[in-house]
Amino acid sequence: MGHVQPENYRPAPGHYGGPVEAVLPPQVQGTALRAARTSGGLLGLTVAGGALAFLSLFLVVPFLLSNTGTAGFLIGFLASLLPLSVVLLAVYVIDKWEPEPKRLLFFAFTWGAAVSIAATLLIQPFFVLAFQFSDIPDLQTYMATVQAPIVEEFAKSLGLLLLLLLARRHFDGPVDGVVFAFTIAGGFAFTENILYFGRAIAESASPASEFAQVFFLRGVMSPFAHAIFTGTTG
Q: Residue 91: left (phi > 0), alpha (psi -120 to 50), or beta?
Protein backbone atom coordinates (compact mmCIF):
# COMPACT_ATOMS: atom_id res chain seq x y z
CA MET A 1 0.00 0.00 0.00
CA GLY A 2 1.53 3.30 -1.09
CA HIS A 3 4.38 1.68 -3.01
CA VAL A 4 4.78 1.83 -6.80
CA GLN A 5 6.06 -1.37 -8.35
CA PRO A 6 8.89 -0.96 -10.87
CA GLU A 7 6.78 -2.34 -13.72
CA ASN A 8 4.17 0.38 -13.11
CA TYR A 9 6.60 3.28 -13.11
CA ARG A 10 7.63 5.26 -16.17
CA PRO A 11 9.57 8.58 -16.01
CA ALA A 12 8.11 11.69 -17.62
CA PRO A 13 9.05 11.84 -21.33
CA GLY A 14 12.27 13.71 -21.85
CA HIS A 15 12.78 14.30 -18.15
CA TYR A 16 15.63 12.55 -16.40
CA GLY A 17 15.96 14.50 -13.20
CA GLY A 18 16.91 17.85 -14.78
CA PRO A 19 15.21 21.21 -14.25
CA VAL A 20 11.53 21.24 -15.18
CA GLU A 21 12.00 24.34 -17.39
CA ALA A 22 14.19 22.32 -19.72
CA VAL A 23 11.31 20.09 -20.79
CA LEU A 24 8.62 22.79 -21.08
CA PRO A 25 7.26 23.17 -24.61
CA PRO A 26 8.87 26.11 -26.45
CA GLN A 27 5.54 27.96 -26.73
CA VAL A 28 5.09 27.81 -22.93
CA GLN A 29 8.61 29.12 -22.37
CA GLY A 30 7.91 31.92 -24.88
CA THR A 31 4.70 32.87 -23.09
CA ALA A 32 6.49 33.08 -19.74
CA LEU A 33 9.26 35.19 -21.27
CA ARG A 34 6.74 37.56 -22.89
CA ALA A 35 4.88 37.90 -19.58
CA ALA A 36 8.13 38.86 -17.82
CA ARG A 37 8.95 41.39 -20.52
CA THR A 38 5.42 42.81 -20.33
CA SER A 39 5.72 43.28 -16.58
CA GLY A 40 9.00 45.12 -17.07
CA GLY A 41 7.45 47.16 -19.87
CA LEU A 42 4.54 48.18 -17.64
CA LEU A 43 6.93 49.35 -14.96
CA GLY A 44 9.02 51.30 -17.46
CA LEU A 45 5.93 52.87 -19.02
CA THR A 46 4.61 53.86 -15.59
CA VAL A 47 7.90 55.37 -14.45
CA ALA A 48 8.48 57.22 -17.72
CA GLY A 49 4.89 58.47 -17.79
CA GLY A 50 5.07 59.63 -14.18
CA ALA A 51 8.34 61.48 -14.81
CA LEU A 52 6.96 63.14 -17.94
CA ALA A 53 3.80 64.15 -16.07
CA PHE A 54 5.88 65.61 -13.23
CA LEU A 55 7.92 67.70 -15.67
CA SER A 56 4.72 68.84 -17.40
CA LEU A 57 3.44 70.27 -14.12
CA PHE A 58 6.17 72.94 -14.25
CA LEU A 59 4.40 74.31 -17.33
CA VAL A 60 0.78 73.49 -16.50
CA VAL A 61 0.55 74.71 -12.88
CA PRO A 62 2.05 78.20 -13.54
CA PHE A 63 -0.27 78.55 -16.55
CA LEU A 64 -3.31 77.72 -14.40
CA LEU A 65 -2.26 80.01 -11.55
CA SER A 66 -1.62 82.91 -13.90
CA ASN A 67 -5.16 82.60 -15.28
CA THR A 68 -7.08 81.75 -12.14
CA GLY A 69 -5.19 83.13 -9.16
CA THR A 70 -4.66 81.12 -6.01
CA ALA A 71 -8.27 81.25 -4.80
CA GLY A 72 -9.67 80.44 -8.22
CA PHE A 73 -7.21 77.57 -8.61
CA LEU A 74 -8.17 75.99 -5.29
CA ILE A 75 -11.91 76.34 -5.85
CA GLY A 76 -11.58 75.15 -9.43
CA PHE A 77 -9.53 72.16 -8.32
CA LEU A 78 -12.12 71.07 -5.77
CA ALA A 79 -15.06 71.67 -8.12
CA SER A 80 -13.34 69.73 -10.91
CA LEU A 81 -13.24 66.63 -8.74
CA LEU A 82 -17.04 66.24 -9.10
CA PRO A 83 -17.25 65.77 -12.90
CA LEU A 84 -14.01 63.78 -12.76
CA SER A 85 -15.56 61.33 -10.30
CA VAL A 86 -18.49 60.80 -12.68
CA VAL A 87 -16.16 59.98 -15.59
CA LEU A 88 -13.97 57.69 -13.48
CA LEU A 89 -17.08 55.90 -12.20
CA ALA A 90 -18.00 55.17 -15.82
CA VAL A 91 -14.45 53.90 -16.40
CA TYR A 92 -14.76 51.64 -13.35
CA VAL A 93 -18.04 50.16 -14.59
CA ILE A 94 -16.79 49.60 -18.16
CA ASP A 95 -13.46 48.23 -16.94
CA LYS A 96 -15.24 45.43 -15.07
CA TRP A 97 -15.65 43.71 -18.45
CA GLU A 98 -11.89 43.10 -18.61
CA PRO A 99 -9.95 44.89 -15.85
CA GLU A 100 -6.84 46.71 -16.99
CA PRO A 101 -3.64 47.02 -14.91
CA LYS A 102 -3.81 49.93 -12.48
CA ARG A 103 -0.39 51.05 -13.71
CA LEU A 104 -1.73 51.62 -17.20
CA LEU A 105 -4.77 53.47 -15.90
CA PHE A 106 -2.45 55.66 -13.82
CA PHE A 107 -0.36 56.34 -16.91
CA ALA A 108 -3.50 57.21 -18.89
CA PHE A 109 -4.80 59.63 -16.27
CA THR A 110 -1.50 61.45 -15.73
CA TRP A 111 -1.00 61.67 -19.48
CA GLY A 112 -4.39 63.35 -19.88
CA ALA A 113 -4.15 65.60 -16.83
CA ALA A 114 -0.59 66.85 -17.35
CA VAL A 115 1.28 65.70 -20.46
CA SER A 116 -1.45 66.32 -23.02
CA ILE A 117 -2.18 69.73 -21.47
CA ALA A 118 1.50 70.66 -21.68
CA ALA A 119 1.68 69.43 -25.29
CA THR A 120 -1.38 71.53 -26.16
CA LEU A 121 0.15 74.64 -24.58
CA LEU A 122 3.37 74.11 -26.54
CA ILE A 123 1.76 73.40 -29.92
CA GLN A 124 -1.12 75.86 -29.75
CA PRO A 125 0.86 79.11 -30.32
CA PHE A 126 2.49 77.78 -33.49
CA PHE A 127 -0.86 76.56 -34.73
CA VAL A 128 -2.44 79.96 -34.19
CA LEU A 129 0.44 81.88 -35.81
CA ALA A 130 -0.18 80.00 -39.04
CA PHE A 131 -3.54 81.78 -39.35
CA GLN A 132 -3.65 85.49 -38.71
CA PHE A 133 -6.94 86.94 -37.47
CA SER A 134 -7.60 90.62 -36.88
CA ASP A 135 -11.06 89.98 -35.51
CA ILE A 136 -11.14 88.57 -31.96
CA PRO A 137 -14.51 86.73 -32.39
CA ASP A 138 -13.18 85.06 -35.54
CA LEU A 139 -10.05 83.99 -33.66
CA GLN A 140 -12.14 82.58 -30.79
CA THR A 141 -14.34 80.67 -33.23
CA TYR A 142 -11.27 79.31 -34.99
CA MET A 143 -9.71 78.27 -31.68
CA ALA A 144 -12.85 76.41 -30.59
CA THR A 145 -13.77 74.72 -33.86
CA VAL A 146 -10.43 74.08 -35.59
CA GLN A 147 -7.49 74.43 -33.23
CA ALA A 148 -8.95 72.65 -30.20
CA PRO A 149 -10.11 69.49 -32.03
CA ILE A 150 -6.84 69.07 -33.91
CA VAL A 151 -4.29 70.00 -31.24
CA GLU A 152 -6.07 68.67 -28.14
CA GLU A 153 -7.18 65.39 -29.70
CA PHE A 154 -3.70 64.84 -31.12
CA ALA A 155 -2.15 65.39 -27.68
CA LYS A 156 -4.60 63.05 -25.94
CA SER A 157 -4.50 60.37 -28.63
CA LEU A 158 -0.71 60.29 -28.53
CA GLY A 159 -1.06 58.67 -25.10
CA LEU A 160 -3.38 56.06 -26.61
CA LEU A 161 -0.84 55.35 -29.32
CA LEU A 162 1.89 54.81 -26.73
CA LEU A 163 -0.33 52.38 -24.84
CA LEU A 164 -1.05 50.51 -28.05
CA LEU A 165 2.63 50.27 -28.96
CA LEU A 166 4.18 49.66 -25.53
CA ALA A 167 1.43 47.74 -23.75
CA ARG A 168 -0.04 45.83 -26.68
CA ARG A 169 -0.83 42.77 -24.58
CA HIS A 170 -3.36 44.78 -22.55
CA PHE A 171 -4.84 46.69 -25.50
CA ASP A 172 -6.76 44.05 -27.39
CA GLY A 173 -10.20 45.36 -28.25
CA PRO A 174 -12.62 48.30 -28.50
CA VAL A 175 -13.56 48.11 -24.81
CA ASP A 176 -9.91 48.55 -23.79
CA GLY A 177 -9.68 51.50 -26.16
CA VAL A 178 -12.72 53.12 -24.54
CA VAL A 179 -11.39 52.53 -21.01
CA PHE A 180 -7.98 54.05 -21.73
CA ALA A 181 -9.47 56.90 -23.77
CA PHE A 182 -12.03 57.79 -21.09
CA THR A 183 -9.26 57.83 -18.48
CA ILE A 184 -7.03 60.11 -20.57
CA ALA A 185 -9.94 62.38 -21.42
CA GLY A 186 -11.08 62.48 -17.80
CA GLY A 187 -7.64 63.73 -16.78
CA PHE A 188 -7.60 66.32 -19.55
CA ALA A 189 -11.09 67.60 -18.69
CA PHE A 190 -10.12 67.73 -15.01
CA THR A 191 -7.25 70.15 -15.65
CA GLU A 192 -9.24 72.11 -18.21
CA ASN A 193 -12.11 72.49 -15.77
CA ILE A 194 -9.73 73.95 -13.18
CA LEU A 195 -8.90 76.62 -15.76
CA TYR A 196 -12.52 77.40 -16.69
CA PHE A 197 -13.90 77.28 -13.14
CA GLY A 198 -11.02 79.27 -11.69
CA ARG A 199 -11.10 81.87 -14.45
CA ALA A 200 -14.85 82.33 -13.96
CA ILE A 201 -14.08 83.32 -10.38
CA ALA A 202 -10.98 85.41 -11.06
CA GLU A 203 -12.21 87.45 -14.04
CA SER A 204 -15.89 88.04 -13.25
CA ALA A 205 -17.53 90.93 -11.43
CA SER A 206 -20.02 88.43 -9.99
CA PRO A 207 -17.86 85.32 -9.45
CA ALA A 208 -20.55 83.21 -7.75
CA SER A 209 -23.08 83.44 -10.58
CA GLU A 210 -20.43 83.14 -13.29
CA PHE A 211 -18.95 80.08 -11.61
CA ALA A 212 -22.42 78.50 -11.25
CA GLN A 213 -23.10 78.97 -14.97
CA VAL A 214 -19.76 77.55 -16.08
CA PHE A 215 -20.04 74.64 -13.67
CA PHE A 216 -23.55 73.84 -14.90
CA LEU A 217 -22.43 73.87 -18.54
CA ARG A 218 -19.23 71.87 -18.08
CA GLY A 219 -19.76 69.86 -14.91
CA VAL A 220 -23.44 68.97 -15.23
CA MET A 221 -24.39 69.19 -18.90
CA SER A 222 -21.19 67.93 -20.51
CA PRO A 223 -18.88 66.00 -18.14
CA PHE A 224 -18.46 63.31 -20.84
CA ALA A 225 -17.67 65.67 -23.72
CA HIS A 226 -13.91 64.97 -23.83
CA ALA A 227 -14.52 61.32 -22.98
CA ILE A 228 -16.73 60.94 -26.06
CA PHE A 229 -14.25 62.79 -28.28
CA THR A 230 -11.22 60.70 -27.28
CA GLY A 231 -13.35 57.59 -26.78
CA THR A 232 -14.03 57.60 -30.51
CA THR A 233 -10.29 57.40 -31.14
CA GLY A 234 -9.93 54.70 -28.50
A: alpha
